[in-house]
Design brief:
The structure holds two protein chains of two kinds. Chain A is mostly helical. Chain A is 85% helix and 0% strand. Classes of the chains: A mainly alpha, B mainly alpha.
Chain lengths: 87, 436
């Protein structure tokens, strides 16, 4: 019973961490997408020749950060009972 | 402040590219710092990683670079605080106020750091909320913006400006790798360091993007490029009192908070160098009552005043960036060495395994060197001076510590021997037997 309660508490707290990171990632993609669209749309006559530079680097930021966050979640999930993260 | 010098070099488009390129580098550096910080659990951060995985020369160079990076940043923050104070009270002089800020923060850090850092967190949170509210108010049309400023200041210096703007890109995120330096004080560093580092990095990416957009649509590019407090100016141009008050106070308080954190980090770096006998061990004394490295804290004053005395914000910022970039070359390199020496992925050695390594670590090194090279436009003497300074430090400390023959005690950290050391040990034992 106690073990079940601990497991339930750990998974609830893990979900809390996951929601925090997913929420921030969604905000990151929205904000970066918004400002890049706004700036490139206003300056398209100039930026049209090299817009791909912005696409490449924003893509790298989002992809690497997302994979990194997934790996952080996986690491917490794997070690949460071993290191008693949520006691 | 500081990031807006990207606009002076490359216009709005140069600034946007610098923000994204530097952001990519910092995302990778954060992942490297997460893996290294959660594995070593040491407060010295980049200095300790270089000491353990590269060698004494690199460790001393990184220790000095962290010290210089933060102390120059402290001076820059103090200068901005003084400028804001002068804009509110025009009779004030900038230099005496700068000195007063440095002295006050040194005193706070001399007495203890916990309350000061808690205050830092609250001040930064207020400023971040102010930026988010200001951004959404602008995005939803509550504030009158000038989209024409984006086109007018898009690329004033042509394609070369796009490249030159990279040199101030790190200022959007400078110092975020310091989050991993709290590992020793965390209850669960293997969870707190990677999670805190990534959360901090995403917060900075969001804050940087919002700040750039707000300032670019509210301040003409030629004024934005030379502004000392761009967010405050953007708020003033919006004409809405609540934003002027919030952003004015927010800029002032975050600069104080940032300078305060810098005194803490730079003094700890100098303390670590002293503790390991890289500099005089006199600095490693701990205060009997306040438990702070008080001599190292006090020693930040003359150096910070030296930087502040120049009065040129861009010069101070440039030295901080060069020192930071040296760290951003050596942090990924420490990770590459760590993975070679300790390939194990056990919970004890490496509780957090970063993704896509070591390829992205090499990529971060390439970006850091590229940004360093762009400093050639406008700051080549600073660049040459920094190379000579850190080069001499590297060879001096390598030579000095080769003779003292200090070895890392891996078993004390609960780690196995690094790969390849078994052969060295067998060889040494065989030589010892031969001598006998």
């Amino acid at each position: 019973m106690n073990n079940h309660a601990t497991k339930s508490k750990y998974h609830r707290k893990l979900n809390g961490d996951t929601v925090l990171v997913v929420g921030m990632l969604v905000l990151l993609v929205s904000v970066e997408g918004f400002i890049i669209y706004k700036i490139l749309a206003e300056t398209w006559e100039i930026a049209g020749n090299f817009f791909y530079l912005y696409v490449i680097f924003v893509g790298l930021i989002v992809v690497i950060e997302t994979i990194g966050c997934l790996r952080v979640r996986e690491s917490i999930k794997n070690h949460m009972f071993e290191f008693k993260y949520y006691d | 402040m500081g990031w807006n010098f990207t606009v002076a070099k490359g216009g709005v488009l140069g600034s946007l590219l610098a923000m994204l390129v530097a952001g990519t580098m910092y995302v990778i550096i954060s992942l490297c710092a997460s893996e290294l910080g959660s594995a070593t659990k040491l407060a010295g951060g980049p200095y300790d990683w270089a000491r353990l995985f590269i060698g004494p020369g690199a460790a001393a160079s990184v220790g000095l670079a962290v010290y210089m990076e933060y102390i120059a940043l402290e001076a820059a923050d103090a200068i901005v605080v003084a400028f804001i104070a002068q804009s509110i009270f025009p009779e004030l002089q900038v230099f005496p106020v700068t000195l007063l800020v440095i002295a006050l923060l040194t005193f706070i850090n001399y007495r203890g750091v916990v309350a000061a850092l808690t205050l830092n967190f609250v001040l930064t949170m207020i400023a971040f909320i102010a930026i988010v509210v200001f951004f959404f108010a602008t995005a939803f049309g509550t504030v009158n913006i000038h989209p024409e400023y984006l086109f007018q200041g898009a690329l004033p210096n042509g394609m070369i400006g796009l490249f030159a703007a990279l040199q101030f890109g790190p200022w959007f995120y400078l110092g975020i790798e310091g989050a991993a330096m709290c590992a020793e004080e965390c209850k669960h560093p293997s969870r707190a360091v990677p999670l805190g580092q990534q959360a901090g990095m995403i917060t900075l990416l969001i804050g940087a993007a919002m700040t750039l957009y707000l300032c670019a649509v509210l301040i003409p590019a030629d004024l934005l490029g030379v502004s000392v407090y761009p967010l405050f100016e953007a708020a003033q141009n919006s004409g809405i009192f609540i934003f002027v008050a919030l952003l004015g106070l927010g800029t002032f308080l975050t600069c104080v908070a940032s300078a305060n954190g810098c005194v803490c980090d730079s003094s700890r770096s100098w303390f670590a160098l002293s503790r390991d006998n890289y500099v005089s061990s006199w600095f490693s004394a701990v205060h009997p009552k306040y438990n702070t490295p008080y001599r190292a804290v006090i020693f930040t004053v003359p150096v910070a005043i030296g930087f502040a005395f120049s009065g040129f914000l861009d010069q101070v910022i440039t030295f901080s960036i060069i020192s930071g970039l040296l760290c951003y070359v050596l942090i990924p390199f420490s990770l590459i060495r760590f993975r070679k020496l300790f390939p194990q992925t056990t919970s004890r050695v490496r509780p957090f395994v970063g993704p896509l390594q070591p390829y992205i670590a090499y990529f971060a090194i390439v970006i850091a060197i590229t940004i360093l090279s762009t400093l050639f436009w406008g700051y080549k003497y600073n660049l040459i001076f920094a190379f000579v300074f850190y080069g001499i430090a590297y060879f001096y400390f390598s030579h000095r510590h080769k003779s003292s023959n200090i070895e890392n005690n891996w078993t004390e950290m609960g780690w196995p021997l690094p790969r390849g050391s078994e052969n060295v040990r067998t060889g040494k034992e065989a030589m010892g037997l031969g001598d006998e």
